[in-house]
Amino acid sequence: MHGSPDTNRTGPADTARTTGAAARTAGAARTTGAAGVPRTAGAVDRAGTAEPARPAHRGPRRPAEFRYLLGRALPFLVLVAAPLADVLTAPEERFDRFLVAAPALAAVTWGARGTLAVGALAMGTTALLVLGRDDRLLAGQTVLAVVTLAAALSSQARRRREVELRRVSEVAETAQRAVLRPLPRRLGGVDLRLLYEASAAGAHVGGDFYKALKVRGGVRIMLGDVQGKGLAAVEAASLLLGSFREAAYTAPGLPAIAERLEASMARYAERAPESTAADRFATVLLAEIPDDEPVVRLLSCGHPAPVVQRGAVVRTVELSSPSVPIHLPVPVDAPFTVDEVTFAPGDRMLMFTDGVSEARDRHGAFYPLERRMRGWAAEPADRIPDLLKEDLARFGAHGLDDDTTAVLVVRGEAGEETLPSHEEHLIGV
What we know:
This protein is an alpha+beta fold. The protein has helices at 14-26, 61-88, 101-109, 112-130, 137-179, 231-248, 254-271, 354-357, 369-375, 384-395, 422-428; strands at residues 10-11, 186-187, 190-197, 208-215, 218-226, 282-290, 295-301, 307-310, 313-317, 339-342, 348-352, 404-411. The strands form two sheets. The chain has a seven-stranded antiparallel sheet. Strands 4-5-6-7-10 form a five-stranded antiparallel sheet, with helices on one face. It is elongated, with a radius of gyration of 28 Å.
């Protein structure tokens, strides 16, 4: 493997946010992609591999469950409160007219049969309340019957949409699992730990992707983020992952890999211009860790710079000349630049997407990643993904409201290099 080191500097954490923001600003005119369904996230298991895109709920579940149960109970609260208020107040107040709201509320959370049952209870309650009154029972019952029928039809349509949405969710989950395979715990002389959390606000599948391969002479890693969400983003990610798998084993250096990524997206756009995936760009961070040198070589295509920890010292790498994102429709003739940073045994490097670098609290302050990593310097590597996930959920104004991916790379001590196991070899392919 060959690199073309240009600098060996570390700098402020603002580099990550500036790079990512510039990429999104330049590509704001691109197609944003279709929204999917709420999706779930994988986690790092005890064996150190990740299981991406597994169905789960994001954020606190108790408030959502409480709202759902409240919605189920509201029709019956109306059935109790309206006649009670009607009996306890003057005859001219006529609180019984609020009973028409019961079947309408039932349609939100109950099925068609449940909604019809609530409507029947409302009609029966109305009939009991008008006994002894000089009222037109038929008119009131007709209104309730029409509202109940409309609410039942609405509930049935909602249930059909939920079934369709569930099917789409399953297809999307399967597609993402096929693209994002687990990371091995160890490749060559480095340990890998993964945090992968998918956004719940807009898509069951997102645009983050990752890959690590043991190649001759070292380890090569790619972390990226495709513009938009949904199946089109997964399709674009699969193209880039396939191109990386092919190029990583044979390319003489990171610039050659970046060129092949760009060429793969360009060829696909020519071959299938009607595909929404052909309009997507992606930020990519490539890393190369040679076996025989205590360094890491980095090439950024519009992606946030990683954070390197050496003992208690934590710094964000200052990339000398980040390139534009892959497949961005901006003519650029500048060559890809590789930065070389010291990465000795025992050092850690955290590669991440903008779900980490651009997380904000309710006051608009960015997530202090360097400070957090400094505080976790003594923590085992296995704990870092969980600590980061929990801290981001607490810090964010809306929890983890964006796709969040981070890969912790730990350089092993001298003499600790091992060949990947059979399982890890299959994962790396």
